[in-house]
Write a structure and sequence with these properties.
mainly alpha
C-alpha cells in the first residue's frame, strides 16, 4: 500500500509541477508571442514604407517624364503658331499686292476703252 501511495504522490507531484510550470510559463509564452507579433508588425510596416517610397519615386519619375513631354508639345505648338502667323502675314502681303495689281489692270482697261 505504501508503494501505491508513493506512486500516486509521485504522479501528483509530476502532474502538479507540470501544471505549475505551465501556469507560470504561459505568461512568458504569451509575452514571446506578443513580441513576435510586434516584430512581424514592424517588419510589415517597414515593407509598406519601402513600397510607398518606391511608388513615390516612380510617381515622381513619371511626373517628370510627363512634364518634359508636355513642355516639348507646348514648344512645338508655339513654333507652329509662329509659322502660321508668318504664313498669314505673307498671305496678307500677297492679297495687298493682288489688289494693287487688280486696280492697275482695271485702270489700264478703263484707259484703253
Amino acid at each position: 500500500m505504501n508503494e501505491i501511495l508513493t506512486a500516486i504522490a509521485g504522479l501528483v507531484a509530476v502532474g502538479g509541477s507540470g501544471w505549475f510550470g505551465w501556469f507560470f510559463a504561459r505568461r512568458k509564452t504569451n509575452a514571446d508571442a506578443t513580441g513576435a507579433e510586434i516584430d512581424n508588425d514592424i517588419k510589415l510596416s517597414n515593407h509598406y514604407k519601402e513600397v510607398l517610397e518606391y511608388l513615390k519615386a516612380k510617381y515622381e519619375e513619371r511626373f517628370k517624364e510627363y512634364e518634359i513631354t508636355i513642355n516639348r508639345k507646348v514648344a512645338l505648338l508655339e513654333e507652329e503658331i509662329k509659322l502660321k502667323d508668318r504664313k498669314i502675314k505673307l498671305q496678307q502681303q500677297e492679297i495687298t499686292e493682288l489688289k494693287r495689281e487688280n486696280r492697275m489692270l482695271r485702270n489700264a482697261k478703263a484707259n484703253t476703252t
